[in-house]
Amino acid sequence: MKRLAVGPMTTPRYKEWWVRRLNDNISKPSQGNSQSMEEHLRVVPSELEIIRQDFERRNAELEKKMEQMEEEKMNLRLDMDWEKIQSSGVKRFEKKRIRLMDGKGNSKSIEIEILQ
Fold this sequence. Notes:
rod-shaped, single chain, coiled coil
C-alpha cells in the first residue's frame, strides 16, 4: 500500500497548534515580577569566574594591608630616630652637667656651654 500525498501536509489546526506551542515557550514578564528581560536572561557566572573575582578581592585587601604595614614601619623608624636624637641630646647635656660639677671646664667654656 502506497500513499500519494497531493497538496500541503499540514492542516490549519496543526498550524494553529504549532504557533501556540511556540508562543507558550517564550517567557513573558508576569504582573507580579517586574524583572526586565535582560535581568531574566542574565548569565550566571561560572565557578572559575567566581574564584577569579574572589582572588582579585583578596589580592586588593592584601595590597591595602601591605601599604598600611609599610606606613607603620616608616612611622616606627621615625619614632626610633627621634628617640635616638633625644637620648643623645640628654646624654650630651648630662656630660656637660657632670663636667661643670666636677670643675673640669674653664670659666669661658662653662659660659659657652650654658648659653648653648
